[in-house]
Amino acid sequence: MNFNEILYGVAYYDEYMPYDRIETDFKMIRDAGMNVIRIAESTWSTWEPKEGVFDFTHLHRMLDCAAKYELKVIVGTPTYAIPSWLAKKYPDILAVTHNGKELYGHRQNMDITNPDYLHHAQIIIEKLMEQVKDYDCVIGFQLDNETKPYDTCSKYAQAKFVEYLKNEFPDIDEFNREFGLDYWSNRVDDWDAFPDIRGTINMSLDAEYKKFQRKLVTDFFAWQADIVKKYKRDDQFITHNFDFEWHDYSYGMQPEVNQYEAAKCMDIAGCDIYHPSQSSLSGREITACGNIARGIKGDNYLVLETEAAGNHPWLPYPGQLRLQAISHIANGACMVEYWHWHSIHNAIESYWKGVLSHDLRPNRLYKECSVIGNELKKYGHRLVNLKKTNKFAIIADNSSLTGLNEFKLNNESDSNYNTVFRWLCDALYLMNIEYDVIPADPALFASYENILVPALYSATDDVLNALNEFVANGGNMVVTFKSAFSDEHLKIRHDVQPYIINKALGIQYDEFTLPDNVTVSCGGKSSKARDWMEMVDCTTATPVAMYEHKHWGVHAAITENSYGKGRAMYLATLFGEDTLIEALKLFFGEQKNEFDASYPVVIKRGTNMQGEKIIYLLNYSDDEQTVTCHADGLKKLCDDSTVSAGDCIALAPWDFSILYAD
After folding, report:
1. Given pLDDT bands bounded at 50, 70 and 90, which one contains residue 594?
2. What's the rounded Cα separation, in Å, for the pair 19 and 636?
3. Fewer C-beta within 10 Å: the chain N or C terminus?
4. What domains are there in the chain, each with its CATH number?
5. pTM tops 0.70
């Protein structure tokens, strides 16, 4: 989906304001060069204070004022936070989870399969759409907000699960065999006697329920999208603000949603990316999570939420807010929107700071937003819809993520699937190698020269054979430990490990343990192995690094193998980032680019709608950095000055430079 300009703006809530200042706010938003606001996703109880009693005063105030100040509007459906009267009238709406029944108060406490919830959610969506359908300023709709299944284990959800299993396994004996339910007498020989899923000790069945819960989210989105489509114009889009696994900030792949499937009913993917700032601002989360978002539909995406100030430690240094905005755009985002405009004066998010502080006066952050907004007004049309053609891809897989949550790498560690995923993502990022994030879909593999496979614990034969074929046809593949260990239902393979792809990898193992004072060295960099290690023996592969240990030193920690026309590397344990980078450099060779630059200078590229090559140089450090150009024919976007081979570009702390070539 293409846009005419970069969308830059804020979430705005007239309902939360301590006094009437909407004219002041919208004029300030416009004067800052912002052009879009997001409204409405959080205020069902304001609009329907009693069942069947509707008051859209605040909605129309925001829409009318947005039209006056020529601001575009994205309207969110308000279904993720239910009003108290609804919970009181229908107590079953509050979700029953593995931890028991929810209490009313926090958001996202409902059962999205409950028929009473769905009935009233449809009413409020339809009422909302009737109110907004005639406003030209409304450009799109956000379905719900950071939606998940909320671990619903209600009678409605579990009944749907049994029907789902009956459809997947018409033969109940096959179902019992596939999930190994003879263990501890867990067989189910009558669908009507299916036990409460919350009691299962069968990890395969538990993982299948989590897969089913992800499907509930997909179905919920499709249901909402069908309602919205009855009202929306052809020029309006449908999106959603997908979020990520949370580590006090956005970290990695979301375990509770199959975002690839969930987004099929949408026109463009959206996301919420929050990250550390100050001395911890590295750009890693902007890239890793942004690449996940770009991969959801294989296209540009919207950042529907990111921080202006946000959490206490995130107050940005001068210049960082501007660098962050441009970093999202350099990664393929067509929109950057802050949550939120004004700091809220009560409730749980009172200290999640917006652009304006609690005094609601213009401040340092507002002034920096104004710099960003007015720069984007000048040249944002040349940055929007940036298309990337990357040679590298990293596979992200929901089933493997769930599998490694069921069977943890190390019960004494927080490491999980996303730890391994980010290990590879961050190494490429620090090497200034741009990459796509793709699902484990064989149809996508041939589009890349290099594929990295983090902990593909659960995989079908088709996927594993396709990876072998990818290497045989000339591709380069890096695979980590804990890959190809189980099938799609977490049944452990009863053959040589790693299953099937041992052909391309040229290795095998049958022992594994937790590292205890084991070291791995490569390219002069040494680090401790941690969390998991496999006792790998080479069949056709060549050892790149052996474990440095008195007893385990006969086994390989890193291997390389030629297979057909391609090559494959195996990483048998988790070790330090510097050591990993040296191993990847050895395997992939030097990646040449137009600039002699290394982290903290990050290079990002793409092609704009005018056919120009756009190059971003981003300085993620508190010190000035200098980079040397190795190409001719480049110009700076800010002033059209020429940059030639041999020229140096100085980047101030937390600053950037954008160049282009015809």
Report:
1. confident
2. 45
3. C
4. 240-383 (no CATH), 392-588 (3.40.50.880), 595-661 (2.60.40.1180)
5. yes
